[in-house]
Structures are given as structure tokens and as C-alpha cells.
Amino acid sequence: MSALGYHDVAAAWWPYAFILLAGWLPTDMWRWIGVASAGRIDENSRLIALARAVATALVAAVIARLVFYPTGSLAAVPDAVRVGALAAGFLSYILLGRHILLGCFVAEAILLGVPYLMG
What we know:
By secondary structure, this protein is mostly helical. It has helices spanning 14-37, 46-68, 79-95, 100-118. The longest helix is centred in the first third of the chain and has 24 residues, at 14-37. It is flat, with a radius of gyration of 20 Å.
């Protein structure tokens, strides 16, 4: 008997089932556990502080990877533009009242606008 792998199923629905089982279900399971236990956990506990620190570090690592080691069409954008968009987005987030969407819009406008203006 051979092991069943992703490419061993030829059905058209298989990629969607795989995404559901391997991607969404494990993530969503932890979200539901968090919702169920949220009322019992002290917001100022050391465990929650650790969870926030880990979550913040993961987001920072993903952003750093996107900026410094991009793939796809983002790799065509010059390094200085990517770093400048990150800096401008963060600066606008701080200066415009800590609104995440405003910081994202500024960074996205730079990422899309500067390469367009450069030709």
C-alpha cells in the first residue's frame, strides 16, 4: 500500500478539500478554542503577554521576509522602494493616529505608484 499524497488524487474537488483540511481547519480550530477560553483567561497574565509577543514577532517576520526576500511581482520592485514603503507606512501609522488601514494605504500607494512613475 502506498502513501496517499496531494498529487495522487485526480478529482477536481481535491485541491479545495486539501485547502480546507490542511489550511483552514487547523487554524480555525485554534481560533474556536481561543474564543471558548477567552472569558477564563486574565487579559494581563504572563501567558497572554507571551502570546501577544509571539504573534507580533510572527507578523514582523512575515513583513521582513516580504520586504527583504520578495517573490513574484514584488521582486521586480527595487529594494529602496520596498524599504521606503515600509518606513512611510509605519511613519504614517504613527503620525496619523495609529490607524492601521491608513498606514497600509500609504505603503501600498508607494509600492504601486513609484514603479508606475519610474516607467
